[in-house]
Amino acid sequence: MKKTLAAFGLASIAAATVNAQEVTWSNSIKGIVEKQCVICHGSDSAAEYQLFKKDKEKWLAKGQGMRMDSYSHLVSFVGWPNSGAMMRRLDDGKSSSDGKQGNMYQHLGATEEERQQNLAQFKAWVGNWTLKRWAEITRDDLSGIKAKY
After folding, report:
1. Is the pLDDT of residue 13 over 60?
2. Is residue 41 part of a domain?
3. Handedness of CA 44, 46, 51, 56 (dihedral sign)
4. Which of 52, 71, 83, 93 can bridge 66 by disulfide, Cβ–Cβ 3.0-4.6 Å?
5. Torsion angle of alpha carbons 84, 88, 92, 93, nearest 10°?
6. 96 C-beta neighbours (distance < 10 Å), count
7. Percent of the chain's residues with pLDDT above 70
8. pLDDT tens digits for range 79-136
9. Is the pLDDT reported for residue 76 higher than 90?
């Protein structure tokens, strides 16, 4: 009986370790982006950041945002040079002083449950979920960002 309980305990620990897999771009975030974001932020439809900023109204009128379909594109909206931009847009309002959701939160899923699950994945990937802009961000804020590939 003791051996059975010990084996069950070890199996439970192993299963918990597998289920607690670290959230990275490749194992979690990329799939969410492909499902929820590329229609407006993919390479076939979206402009590079500088081109988007140059003629923002034209792109928005077409329902297109700036390109965010790869790790290197997306991570620049997490840390630098566009610190916190992704977090401000995806936030559910619980991190903002006014409680207002980010303009892209609604696109994280078809239901509130799916949006919350995907938001949790993004928060786990980012680490330090800050809505601060570059001028406000501190060294501690930046060092808390994980955003692993």
Report:
1. no
2. yes
3. positive
4. 52
5. 110
6. 14
7. 87
8. 988 999 999 999 999 999 999 999 999 999 999 999 999 999 999 999 999 999 999 9
9. yes
In 3-state terms, what secondary structure has residue 117? helix
d(CA 139, CA 91): 22
Distance CA 91, CA 101 (A): 6
Cβ count near 144 (within 10 Å): 13
The whole-number pLDDT of residue 1 equals: 52
Query: What is the domain range of residue 60?
Result: 23-143
Using CA atoms of 113, 21, 76, 145 in order, give the dihedral in degrees to the nearest 10: 100
Q: Tell me the two tokens of residue 15.
A: 């299963």
Count the domains in the chain: 1
Q: Are 130 and 137 in contact (CB under 8 A)?
A: yes
Nearest-CA neighbor of 64 among 87, 92, 82, 38? 38
Whole-model pTM? 0.83
Distance CA 27, CA 18 (A): 13
- Residue 11 within a domain: no
74: in domain = yes
In the block, residue with structure tokens 């194992």: 27
Question: Does 12 score more than 60 pLDDT?
Answer: no
